[in-house]
Amino acid sequence: METRSREIERNERLETALREQPRRVIAALVDDEPLDATPILRDDEVLSCEEYVTLVYEFHHVVLPELAAAGLVRFDRLEDEVRRGEQFVAVQSAF
Fold first, then answer.
1. Are strands 35-36 and 81-84 parallel, antiparallel or unpaired?
2. CA 4 → CA 12, 46, 49, 70, 76, distances in Å?
3. Residues sharing a CB contact under 8 Å with residue 34, sequence separation 6 or more, in sequence order
4. Per-residue model confidence as pLDDT tens digits over 11-48
5. 12, 49, 58, 73 from 8: Cα distances, Å
6. If you write DSSP's letter for every residue of the chain in order, what string do you get?
7. Dist CA 19 CA 32 (whole Å)
8. Is the pLDDT of residue 1 over 60?
9. Which of 63, 74, 71, 70 is nearest to 40 (CA)?
10. Model confidence pLDDT, tens digit, residues 56-89
């Protein structure tokens, strides 16, 4: 059984990775190259398989649709690709 402190640590890792996704996507699109629609993790971030599956789900069903609704990205589910949206340049510096 998982100890309470390990559970909290696991939740914090996932929450941090999830919270940083919008900023990481915007930063990655600075070069105006399309991105694969997969979460962006730092080299020092380690997630369990369960955490990563949760992150991917949230990324596809919450993060990318919210960025697309704001016009920051275009999310092509069929191509599994993310590109700059119409409002990208206007708000890029805020991220």
1. antiparallel
2. 12, 19, 19, 38, 39
3. 81, 82, 83
4. 899 999 999 999 999 999 999 999 999 999 999 999 99
5. 6, 17, 19, 32
6. ---HHHHHHHHHHHHHHHHHHHHHHHHHGGG---EESS----TT----HHHHHHHHHHIIIIIHHHHHHTTSEEEETTTTEEEE-TTHHHHGGG-
7. 22
8. no
9. 63
10. 999 999 999 999 999 999 999 999 999 999 999 9
Who contacts 52 (Cβ-Cβ below 8 Å, separation ≥6)?
A: 39
Question: Tokens 């080299």 belong to which residue?
Answer: 43
